[in-house]
User: Fold this.
Amino acid sequence: MLLTEFGRDDGQLRIMITRGGRRIAVTEPLPERAETISLATITYAPSVILTGVKSLSYAANMQATRIAESQGADEAVLVQPDSTVLEPPTSSVFWVSPQGGLRTPALGAGVLESITRDRMVKALSVEEGSWPIADLRAAGEAFLASTTREIQAVAAIDGAELAEAPGPRTREAQEAFAATLEQEL
Assistant:
């Protein structure tokens, strides 16, 4: 009934289950997204207690985005105090390394084990690991991936423009996402 009332437009359905067992369902339109996005690195020291947890509290994530916006970027990419790349607040980050491989932070680094990240790692040849921010900043191409964002090219990191946005690996990811969506729906 909730989906019928929402209509046939693309949107998102958020299902929340409270500690007391209540189920809350909310529908909303998908946000408009530009073809490219700029990132600013924001240092973040995650708590081991919340590593890999998808919780209702997005306070720290949204604050990271506000800090990135105050620096002239569209979105944050979280980086540990030792400079290890983590992820943006509501998506996964992938980039083409200076050596030419497609990279994303490993789950062991503390990033969320998201469905979209999982599908992209399986569909593309991706190196998972622990990399310093210098590796991401040296990328010639990068993109973000999430269920609602889908695949979005990164145009700049910390004010430095990337060579290609979107580039061939981003286009490959967009095609892989579309094929996965078609197959799974």
Notes: The radius of gyration is 17 Å. The first helix runs from residue 2 to 6. The helical segments are 2-6, 59-70, 115-123, 133-137, 168-184. Residues 151 and 173 are 7 Å apart (CA to CA).
